[in-house]
Amino acid sequence: MEFMLGVNYWGRDYGTEMWLHYDKDAIRRELKQLSEYGVRCMRVFPNWRDFQPIDKSYGYLGKFGEYTNSHDGSVVFGDGVDMDRIEDFRDFCRVAEENQMTLVVSIVTGWMSGRLFVPPAINGKNPITDPEALMLMRRFIHRFVRELKDEKSIIMWDLGNECNCMGPVWSAFDSYKWAATVVDSIRSEDNTRPIASGMHALEISGNWRITHQGELCDVMTTHPYPSPTIGANKEPYTRLRATFAPTAQSLYYSGVGKKPAYIQESGTFTETIGSREMSADFMRIQILSALSNGLLGYQWWCAWDQKHLDFSPYTWSLMEESLGLFDENGAPKPVAHVMKMMSQTLEKLPSPFPKRKSDGFCVLSYEMNHQNNAMASLTFAKQAGFDLDVAFSEGDPLPESNLYFMPSITGWSILRKATWEQLLDRVSNGATLCISYDGGHMIDVPKVIGAQSMGVMTGVNHNFTFKGESVSYRGNEVLLTPLTAEVLIKNEEGNPVFLKNRYGKGTVYFINFSPENIAFDTADGFNKFPYYLIYKEVAKDIISSKPILVYDRNLGITVNPENDFESIVTILNYSDKAIVPDIKVNSNYEITEILYGNTKIIPKCDGVILRVKKK
């Protein structure tokens, strides 16, 4: 699949009301302009309220009489879908095709920018769980997909826009039932296109689960902004954390959901937290990072600023007014120029872009903040010069690998017994496992980590020196007496901080604190604390075999093999300062082509893409 680069689209003049005021001439002007600025793929939204304008009339004692059309009061028979809106959407699809643009269609658009948009007949009801709402929704989906499935510009269906915001659910079974209803309705009419999740803020163990969405859908989606949702609000969003967080969150969703993922919407809110030029930098690094790390696409929120729209949701939240590629008058903002430049860059790169080479897995335990720890672990790996995928087991086999990291174990039950035994069996047969500690309970501790516990301490604050860096840490630790383990780091009191133990044919490393939680919870934590050096020590043999090595904590390297002899190597600057890179080419490789950027200096939030070949 071609990388899906583009925007989330509402019309400039009417926003969420565009389908009630469909203007063919305006649509043609707008899509032409977007295409000229490099937009290749748009996510679009059939407003559920407008496409199925069903209301109710009532009789004696308030009893339900019949369904009526909310526009003209006529009696509704069947699904109640407005065929004029269907024809408008068909026209939109064909204009997109004329401009060589593809579409991801968020079918159940019942929630948008903080406001519900549902058929009047179910106002006040829970759109997720109410039986009548489910009936009307199912009828709408069937009609919509049946009528439009032959439009060539549509490449993917989407459940809807953040539909987990439409109403509360009381269990994961409620959300599963809703999502299964949508997916089954789509597939019964069209089983030729992939279906994306369209959700945000999913969890492993919450009422809206990543695993359920992965089971039901073909593509996982993330909606990352510089917000608390992904911990990206702690420092300027053009610094490492926020710049890698959208990629890391997407890899987390993909790993847990066992499906490919893409950044379906992203942006930078208002100029309160950064300038327009910073937004452009943020977009550029996101596109490069998503591409090189194997994500399916990147779509900006949104096409146009909406300051001129004087109705909700735009009057409810000032944040919704200035998120566009273009301002409210249609003038391009800096992000529009970056979109155009990156689109032109993509034309010069291999398509589809080669698959990213992963070096191991971050294995998540049960009782933890899964997203934060996964993102922190992936960030450390990227800083150190290698790449991880994410794995979470509910009893199913762990993916095969020679390298596993198990971050910040906490709680009474870190893994199911079968998964723990499988992990140790992999190590016994030659794999490497690195465990970091945050109060979790293991068994066979002396055998596994090669040290005897003499008790635990909480609320500690300590220091150590490693690779010439003075490092502090806080939180929980175990008081350890080494047995078979080699102590690689001690703190200022002499307690082991980092141990290496032989286990069968493999190796277990033990980090006696939680670097992932500390870095994630601290402003500028990934630069303030050089914990990535510990990850680098664990994976040093893998790192040394890479075609290219870089030596800067803000530079991330990704290897994408094209064949047995050639690879694309991407070096990205995830910081807000230009970096003169210290690049070392492996003696077994040579750089044959610079596809993007240059190796002399890597500008802020930018990168260089190389082709290398084995000698």
Flag low-confidence runs: none
Number of strands: 27
**Structural class category:** alpha/beta
Taken as a percent bin, the fraction of beta residues is 25-35%
Work out the helicity level. 25-40%
The outline comes out as: globular
Q: Strand order, biggest sheet?
A: 9-8-5-2-1-12-11-10
* Rounded Rg: 26 Å
Distance between the termini: 31 Å
Which helices and strands occur, and which strands form pairs?
Blueprint: E1 4-9, H1 24-36, E2 41-44, H2 48-51, E3 54-58, E4 64-69, H3 83-98, E5 102-108, E6 111-112, E7 115-116, H4 131-148, E8 154-160, H5 172-189, E9 195-196, H6 210-216, E10 220-222, H7 245-257, E11 261-266, H8 276-292, E12 297-301, H9 334-348, E13 360-363, H10 370-384, E14 388-391, E15 403-409, H11 417-428, E16 432-437, H12 445-449, E17 451-466, E18 469-482, E19 486-490, E20 496-503, E21 506-511, H13 515-521, H14 525-528, H15 532-538, H16 540-544, E22 548-550, E23 555-561, E24 566-573, E25 583-585, E26 589-596, E27 607-614
Parallel strand pairs: 1-2, 1-12, 2-5, 5-8, 8-9, 10-11, 11-12, 13-14, 13-15, 15-16, 16-21
Antiparallel strand pairs: 3-4, 6-7, 17-18, 19-20, 20-21, 22-25, 23-24, 24-27, 26-27
Helix pairs in contact: 1-3, 4-5, 6-7, 7-10, 8-9, 10-13, 10-15
